[in-house]
Specification:
Length: about 250
């Protein structure tokens, strides 16, 4: 396994990174998603899970723990090689991975992660009988995915393309549903990102993450749907450049 395949690195042209953002993408997504989070002063390292992009031929991870084990093995040499301030972001399903990774870092590299960012995901347990049923029905799962936004329906009309999209999505969602219990309580400061039009992860549910850290929490409210973060990444970076605080942050 090549680390080059596990981590996708994004830096803007002529950018000079002054901080690092480790990114765990949403269910079904790959490392390419990290490109939309690039900024002039940040290095984005996106975890490319197996079963997608350059790792298409590899079997997808069966559990949150397996995915975090792999990400940790790839990221620790990077984090040990410098002292670049590092934040960890997880979007949707990726929030589970990000929280578990930060929990691992608190034990193995205390203080190395500056802040955890969770976006568009209610903390577990988060049962969804409708989604569980859709996992076994390509048509229902396609409708659910298109309803989240960000995936053109016409892309999924071709059977081959549909399988390429749905197979890793189904694996990630299965791992999410098999994640039992509440998240581990952390000491790392937390930034919660929630969008006012997100019906899958309503702000009131997403903001519940603040109960799982003793390090203080901020809330960044965005306008839009489930993937609003990718259209408003400048607000995320503004929040991460600001000093840690427990007061809410204004959205736009």
């Amino acid at each position: 396994m090549s680390t080059d395949n596990v981590l996708a690195r994004w830096v803007t042209p002529n950018g000079v990174p002054q901080r690092r953002l480790v990114f765990f993408p949403h269910a079904g997504a790959g490392g390419l998603t990290g490109r939309s989070l690039a900024a002039h002063d940040v290095e984005v390292l996106a975890h490319r899970r197996p079963g997608r992009e350059a790792r298409m031929a590899e079997p997808a991870a069966a559990s949150v723990r397996e995915a975090v084990d792999e990400a940790t093995a790839a990221l620790l040499p990077v984090l040990d090689s410098d002292d670049l301030p590092t934040d960890v972001l997880g979007h949707s399903f990726g929030a589970l991975l990000a929280a578990e990774f930060v929990n691992r870092m608190e034990r193995e590299r205390p203080g190395r992660v500056r802040r955890l960012v969770v976006s568009a995901k209610a903390p577990p347990p988060d049962p969804s009988p409708e989604l569980a049923a859709a996992l076994h029905d390509d048509h229902a799962l396609t409708e659910w995915l298109v309803g989240l936004g960000g995936t053109p329906a016409e892309l999924l009309e071709d059977p081959g393309m549909r399988a390429m999209v749905l197979d890793p999505l189904r694996a990630d969602l299965t791992a999410s549903m098999n994640y039992h219990g509440e998240p581990t309580r952390l000491s790392t400061p937390l930034l919660v990102v929630a969008a006012d039009g997100d019906t899958t992860a309503p702000p009131s549910a997403v903001e519940s993450w603040s109960a799982f850290t003793t390090g203080g929490a901020q809330v960044l409210r965005l306008r839009g749907g489930h993937h609003a973060l990718f259209d408003q990444s400048e607000l995320l970076h503004a929040a991460l450049r600001a000093p840690e605080a427990s007061s809410p942050l204004p959205g736009r």
